[in-house]
Each structure stands twice: as C-alpha cells, then as structure tokens.
Amino acid sequence: MAKCSVCDKAAHFGIKVSHSHRRSNRMWKSNVKSVKAIVDGTPKRIYVCTKCLRAGKVERA
Known about the structure:
Blueprint: E1 12-17, E2 23-28, E3 32-39, E4 42-49, H1 50-55
Antiparallel strand pairs: 1-2, 3-4
C-alpha cells in the first residue's frame, strides 16, 4: 500500500459498527497521490498525501 514519503501517513485500521451494533474490521485509506517532485536536486516520482501537497512541504518538478 502506498504511504506518504514526507510524513509517513498510511492506512488506518479500525472497526465498523452497524446500526444493530454488529462489528466488522475496516480500513481507512489515506489520500495519497503519485507526484513528480524534486528530491535531492533531481526530479523523482514519490507518493505524497494531499495534506503535505497543500501545505507546500513538497516542491513539484
């Protein structure tokens, strides 16, 4: 699964609870995009979450 290479944000796991209180496992996926960014002075494809993109933590190529 893709993980943000800036803040290491990945999928979260928990329990879905229905109206009748039946419980089952579920997963929340983070909003991660494949972006061409400048890493160590060279353009490179990395996975970045949209929160880091909006905050300006990544310089796009």
